[in-house]
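step: validate -> pass
step: tokenize input -> pass
step: predict -> running
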Amino acid sequence: MLNRIKTSPIPLWVNLLVVLLIAFMGIQVVWNYFDNQVLLDSGITIQGDPDQNVIYTTAGRLVAMIAASVLVLVTQNPAQYVVVMFMSAVREAQEGFIDPLYPMADSPISPTADFLIHVVIVAAEVAALVVVYRLWKAQDTTPARQLEGA
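step: predict -> pass
step: emit ->
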């Protein structure tokens, strides 16, 4: 896989961003599936099956996003990257508003700082989305692609 990444048209910084996002999502998956004490410490109450349903559903969705992100790292396909980066930017943009509006009890930063951090992350994801979109479109207009469609 490393050779594929080295020879890929996808810039290294985009691949590193995806790896970083996988790491952040992976930590959240561990918290949701296995370490509910972290959730309790942050102010989330877990009082029964409905709460567990939300927690495990969130973890399952994160696992699906991790799986899609790993797939793009393996395939290095710009079209697949477009989907993953779009999904990541939309997710993070929502968190950028949700986290400051409803901060965790043990949040180490202010809501304003949290918002600004999310702005930086979303900007990086949007920049990556633009890069992979352009790569995908450039591949889509090559003569070989035009012949396949004929």
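step: describe -> The chain has a mean pLDDT of 90.
step: cleanup -> pass
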